[in-house]
Design brief:
mainly alpha, two-stranded antiparallel ribbon, 2 strands
């Protein structure tokens, strides 16, 4: 049975689940967000925005849990043959992914607060979420910021995936495999 926790060379099951569920959520939210703002019928858009917001709130909760888990688990070592610049870039890219995910989630929450009738968010049907903005004054800026940050996050996810594939097919090391199956 795979280990739940990370060790010096592999990602544990919990970290891998956080990784792949985050990846799926990001792809869903960016794709659905583009679709709902550019292609969906105007009459039904509000329901799409509400679903998008709800998923975004859960992603934010999931991010917090992921960071707590990461703080209590070792991060597996990168391959020894990687140059220093590549190690630094990998670390910076991972923290940039976390920061962008946080910024996109918070800015999305603020967008949900600036509708004519702000969305009332609850997690698990019980935990009521506060409003971060109480005025529509900054709606345009907040919405534009959310959109731009979402596309930057998506671009970084693509670069991250391409880097993992480069490790697997180009360098022929275990970087992708240890996140895919923990081996």
């Amino acid at each position: 049975m795979p280990s739940l926790r990370n060790d010096a060379s592999t990602w544990g099951l919990v970290a891998r689940l956080f990784h792949w569920l985050s990846a799926l959520a990001i792809l869903f939210l960016v794709g659905y967000g583009f679709w709902m703002t550019h292609l969906a019928e105007r009459a039904g858009r509000l329901a799409h925005y509400q679903l998008h917001s709800l998923v975004g709130w859960y992603v934010l909760l999931f991010l917090a849990l992921r960071l707590v888990w990461r703080a209590g688990n070792p991060v597996p070592d990168l391959p020894a043959d990687l140059p220093g610049w590549e190690r630094a870039t990998a670390r910076a890219a991972h923290w940039a992914l976390y920061a962008l995910l946080l910024a996109v989630s918070i800015s999305g929450w603020m967008v949900a607060d600036t509708f004519r009738q702000p969305f009332e968010g609850t997690l698990f049907g019980v935990i009521r979420l506060p409003h971060l903005l109480t005025s529509r004054e900054y709606r345009g800026v907040v919405e534009e910021t959310h959109m731009v940050l979402s596309y930057v996050l998506f671009a970084l996810v693509i670069v991250h995936a391409a880097s993992a594939l480069r490790h697997h097919f180009g360098r022929r090391n275990r970087v992708l495999l240890r996140m895919w199956r923990g081996s």
